[in-house]
Write the structure tokens for this entry.
Amino acid sequence: MLSIDALRVAYGGAVEAVRGVSMDVPDGKVVAVLGSNGAGKSTLLRTISGTLSLHRGRVDAGSVRLDGADLVGRDPGKIVRLGVVQVPEGRRIFGRLTVEENLRAGGMASKDKSAKAAAQERVYDLFPVLKERTSQRGGLLSGGEQQMLAIGRALMASPKLLLLDEPSLGLAPRIIGQIGEVIAEINRQGTSVLLVEQNATMALGVADLAYVLDVGEVSLSGDARELARTDEVQRLYLGHESEAPQERTTAAPRKTLSRWTA
Amino acid sequence: MTQFLSLLVNGISLGTIYALIALGFVVIFKASEVVNFAHGSLLLLGAYVIAVTSDALGFLGAVLVGVAVTAVAAVLVERLVINRLRGAPVISLAIVTIGVDIIILTELVRRLGSDILNVPHPWAGESIRFAGVGISLNRGVAMVVAAVLIGLFFLAFKYSNWGVAMRASAEDGETAALMGIKQGQVSALAWVVAGVLAAVAALFLVGSPTPGVSPTVYAVALAAFPAAILGGLDSTGGALVGGLLIGIAETLATGYQDEMLFLGRGFGTVVPYIVMLVILLVRPSGLFGTRELTRV
Ligand SMILES: Nc1ncnc2c1ncn2[C@@H]1O[C@H](COP(=O)(O)OP(=O)(O)O)[C@@H](O)[C@H]1O
Ligand SMILES: [Mg+2]
């Protein structure tokens, strides 16, 4: 479905953030991209969603194709209409808009009223808590609810491919578990997912395939379960065996990664 | 008491006109992150076009053309200047709009010379009187039309796609772009709306009790700036409250100036700025200016 080939991206003509990345998201799969801060994960997603120019970033080489059609240089609205929708890092919900208005904003690219109504129903089914708070301001939701709203908002455009940028960021372990389940459910309903994460436990738990990004380059890739068993990923991302996922604090994934960069 | 009521009603009607201007000012600020100092000259442009076309087109035709020309002029400023400088610091953009203002204003003043152009309002000279409270028919019509427009504006702002897109984009342009909301489009439309509101305000500002279209209309329109600022530059509700507050304060001060002669004549015209200063001293972000509510 999505195929990235020898992609190179730089900011301001100087900082090279992605250096020759090739990657595939097969139809119907969940693909995880792991990497520490600054690895180029968000840059990769911005390139796919067409928002790179808002950061003065530029594609220097390579291609990003959706079912064969090149996405580079298209405007973000067009890419949304082609079926690729990004949930940005840090959720970025509209805090002054109500839950319902946030969802409405998410469906803004399409004029298809019945598709939007169906999408809204799907969102409320996935996240009943949002349905109870339709007229509440987004800014008053808890962190976990905000992440659900951010995902729900993206689903309003009925994407074929959902791009998630660190949905676990800053959330409690129990909530991270729920987010993982939601991602699996969204995938079961037929949406392919490209999941960028620092929390490898959650990401490798739901992903079929995974890539490890290291300073703008792919250092490892393969089947998610196999990758989780490799020494390197065990050591770098999953920490000690004794450190069970349930006991981690929200800061834990970062801690294990800083050990990696050290 | 009747004098007070009379002044109050007149103040409210002037306030609704100020609110029209201030709303446009706020909408532009929200959508384009520009403090638009060209707003006053856009308004004067509207008044001028209505006045010079009314002979040929009749009153209604002239109003339609005046509103259209003002809206087009506003969107041209946005497309040709503001849109190209997107991302520039707010202060640079503000200074650019001052430049635009001077260009438009200089040309209009040159054309007007020392003339006072007349707009043939069908309700010219009439006034209404109810239980001793008097108001010029012009200001009465202004109040009704402004109330309808402001009501429509708030409905659109709250419920229409444009309103939701506009508020989303104002809050976080990049994230809105991820949803296919184009900041450029939202911004251009905001300038159109602001242009229309300014031209309608102009229509009533140049009627009784004001003598007609002259450069002084520009100075009158300037009082809407403190209205927008004291309400909170990014608050549409604030623009409405600010407009009413300034309109009432100015009218009361002018009406009671004989009782307050120690302040000198013409005190009414500085009242908007005094009210603004006092409110900003107490609340630096204006009455309803928001500091970010979002929990990040
Ligand atoms: N807007 C930007 N302007 C300049 N450099 C940037 C910008 N955003 C990210 N970078 C740089 O690009 C690299 C990759 O960043 P990013 O894609 O945000 O990584 P990640 O999401 O994996 O943490 C980093 O070196 C970062 O400093
Ligand atoms: Mg990132």
